[in-house]
Amino acid sequence: MNELLDLHSNQWKLIILPRKYRTRLLIAIAQLAEHSPLKVLDCGRQYDSSIVARAARGREEIMDRIQIQRAFICYEVVKLLERTPTGHAPTIVLDLLSTFYDENVQIGMRQFLLQSALLHIQRLSYKFGVFVSIDFPPNTSNELSLFEQVRSAASQVLAYETPADASQQLRLF
Amino acid sequence: MNEFTGWLLDLYPSPGHGIALWLICEDGQRRCLYQDFPVTFYAAGRSHRLRALWAFLRKQPFHITLARTERRDLFSGSTIVLAASLDQPSTLPSLFQTLTRIFPDLTFYDTDLHIALRHAAVYGTFPLARCHIVTDRQDKICELDVLDSKWDIDPKSPPLRVITIEPDTDPFHNNPQKILVRSQKSCVSLDLNEDSASLGLLSYLLKCADPDLIITSHGDTWLFPLILKLAKAQKRSLPLNRDPNAKITYRKARSYFAYNQVIYRGQQIHLAGRLHLDIRNTVMYHDYGIDGVLEMARVTSLPIQTVARVSPGTGISAMQIVTALKQEILVPLRKEQVERPKTTSELFHDDMGGIVYDPIVGLHEDVAEVDFASMYPSIMVQFNISPETVNVGKKTSDSVMNLERITAQEPQGLIPQTLAPLLTKRLKLKTKLISLSKWDCRYKNYKANTAAYKWLLVTCFGYLGYKNARFGRIEAHEAVTAYGREILLRAKDVAEDMGFRVLHLYVDGMWIKKAGCRTKQDFQPLLDKITTTTKLFIMLDGIYKWVAFLPSRQNKKIAVPNRYFGVFQNGDIKTRGIETRRHDTPIFIKETQIKILEILTAAPGGMQIASLLPEIETVVREKETELRLGKIPLEKLIIHQTVSRQLDEYRSPSPAFVALKQLKKVGKSLRPGQSIRFLYILGKQRSRAWDLPYTFDPRTVDIARYWLLLTRAISAILDPFEVTDEIILGKNKQLKLDL
What we know:
The complex is a heterodimer. Chain A has a six-stranded parallel sheet, sandwiched between helices. Chain A contains six helices and six strands. The longest helix of chain A is centred in the last third of the chain and has 18 residues, at 107-124. By secondary structure, chain A is of the alpha/beta class. Chain B is of the alpha+beta class. Chain B contains 20 helices and 29 strands. In chain B, helix 10 crosses helix 12 (414-435). The interface between A and B is medium-sized, with 30 and 23 residues. Strand 3 of chain A pairs antiparallel with strand 19 of chain B.
C-alpha cells in the first residue's frame, strides 16, 4: 500500500478501493507519516484516529505530522479543497465521492461541485502530488456518471480487484 | 374597518393576495384574512455574477425590488449581498429553483424558509397564537398584534372542532370495507363499496361539522388519495380544504438516513384553512399526542400540519431560523464551514463523545440515580456554545478545564439564545408537574408538553454536528461533549469524596450508593455540592429498592452500559436495553417479561425473592402452555423490524428479507425505513410476512423459536437473582441457545 501512496508532483493518483479496506489505507498513511508530514482531507468519515494512533504505535510525533480536516456534505468538500493551500505536504483525499452520492442534492449541482473539486485537486497536485481514494459506485446512472467524471480526470487510476474465488479443492475420496 | 380577536390556525401564501391567515374568532366564526407580506432573499458571490443575477431578476414578469446591501453572515461576519424583495411570496419557490440552476456558484440566503417562520420573525406569531387583528373592508389586514406568548405555561386554548376518520382495518394488511367518521356529536360508518352514497355523506358530514382539525389513520397514504380519486371519478366536490381557492398540497414519500437509522416518511397531504394529521404518518405523536404536537407548533412556529410530520431536529432548526431572522442574520441554505485543521492527536482527544464507565454487574440495593437536567442544552446555554462562539480567542480545552464560558463575547450566541427560554419553560413545567396530582386536568397536558421539549432539547445537541444543519459546526459539537465529560468526571469526584460508591456513569447520569443513604435527604448534600462545583443543575431521578446491571449475553464477564432494570422505592419499574424496550420483541414476550418484573417489585430486598419463585414459575408455565397450545393470539407473536435497505441489497436471507420477498410476490413493496411485520414459522422459509393476503395456518408457527425467545427474556431478568434454569424451563429440560 505504501508504494501506491508514492506521489509525484503535478499528478494525482486515484485508487478505487472498497470501504472495508480503509484500515489498510489508514495504516499506510501512518507509515508514510513516519517519513514526512501529510495532509489528509476526509470526505467520507473514513479517518479513524484510533486506527492511525495504533499504527503509529502511539508516537505523538507521527500523529502530529498528519494534519486532518473533515467535510460532511459535498458543498463542504469543495470549500475544503478550495481553502487548502498548495502548501508543504502531500495531500490524501479519502472517499472523495461519498458526499456526492447524496440524492438530496440535484445531480446537476453535484456534477458542478465535483468539477470544481477536481480543479482544486489538480491545483493541489502541482507541488507534491495528491492521492485520492473512492469506493466502487452504487449501480445507478447518476452515481456512475460521477464516478466516471473522477476517473477520467485522474492522472493514474488504480483499482482494487477482489481476489477470484479459489478453485474448489478436489475431493480426496 | 373590522376588528377580530382569535387564534391563528393556518397561514400560507395566497397567489395575488400576499398571504392568507385563518383565524378561529372568539365569536366562533372561522375567518380567512389576507395580508401583504413581501419576502426578501439574498445572494452573495463574485461581483460580475451578482450583476448577472441582477439583470436576470429585472427581466422577471413579476415585481421585484432589488438593492445592494450589507447583512451579517453568522460565520463570516458582515457580507455585501444582493437583496431581492418579492411582493408575492408564492412566486419564491419556483424562482429559487430556477436561480440555483442558472447560478450554482452563488450563495443564496433566506430562500427556502417557511412563510410561517418569516411571519413569526416579523410579527411574533405562532400557531394558535391569540391575535388581535384590524382589517379593511376587503379583509386585508392593517394591524396585527399577538396577545399571548409561546412561553406562557397555561395559554387560553382555542375551541378546536375535531373529527377523526379511520378505516376498519390496516389497508396494508387487508382491504378496508368501511371508514368510521367521528365528530364531537356523531359517529358514522361509511361503506366503501357504496362509493357514491358514502362520498355524498362524507361531504355532508364535513360541511356540517366544518372541522378545524381532521385526524386520520392512514389518511396521507391511503384514505385521502382514495377518496379524492373517487371524488374526481364521480365529478363530486369534497370540501377537504376549507379554503376553496387553495389547492391541496402533496409531499412525496421519502426514505433518508438520520439518527443512525433509515427513516421513512410516507406521502403527506396538507389542507388549506383546516388541518390534517395522519397519526400513522407523524413522528412523535405516539409519544406526546395531539397536545404535544400543538405545543411543538407553538414553540417552533412551524405550522401544525408540518410540525407533526417532521423530526424534532427540524423544529429546533426552525427556532434557530426565527432567532436569526429577528436579528437580521443571514440564513444559509446549508452550512459550508470547513473544519479547522487538526493533528491526529487533537482529533483523537476532541472527537470522543460522552463519557461512559461500565457498570458493576449484578444486583445492588438502595441505589440512587442522579442526572443533570437537559445536560447538553444546559451546557450550551451556561457556557455560551454556538457555532460563532467557538474558536474565538481562548482555546476550547482551557475553557473546559476551568469550566468557564467558551468566550467572553456578549450577547449570547445564536444557539444559547434559542435554547434558554425552552429550558426555562421545561424546568417550570417539570416543577409544576411534581406538585400536581395525576388526576389534575392539567397533568396530561403538562406531561405532553415536557415530552415535546425533551425531544427538542435532545436533538439540539445533535444538530450542532448534523451535516444538514444550517447553523451547525463540528467544533461546537465537540466542545459540548468536552464540557460534558469534564462535568461528569467532577461530579464523580465529588461523589467519591463524600464517600459514595459510583456503580455506573453514563453521559449525563450516575448510579451511586452509600451505606445508610436511603432517602432523598440523604442525597441532597451531594446534589447541592455537585451543582455548585459544576455550575449545572443535577437532580435525583429516584432511589432504587434494587437495580440489576446486566452483563453481555455472549460473555457474562463483560458489562454492558445502559442495560439494566430496577424497582424504585415507589414501586415504579425502570428498564433499559432489555426485551421490553426493544421494538422487535413480540408483544407476548414483552408482556411476560413485564409480568415477572411486576412480581419482582414485591421483593423486599435484592436477593430475597425465594417467596416469589412459585408465583414466577406459575406464570412461566402458564405462558409455556399457552404458547404450546397455540392460545397466544397471532398478533402478539408478530416481529416488527425496520427495513434497512432495498430488497436487492440484502446479502443474507434474513427473516425480514424472506418476508419482504413474499410481499413483493403479491405486489406489496416496502421502502427502507418502513416496518416489516412477520411471524417465525416452521419449514424452509422460516418466516412469513404478516401482511400476505392468504389465510395462515397457525399450526405452522415455530413454537420452539418463540419459546427460546421467551426463555431468553425471562433469563435476562432472573439471572441476577441466581435463579436456577429449572424455574424457567421446567423439570428435566435444557435450554438450547443456538438457533
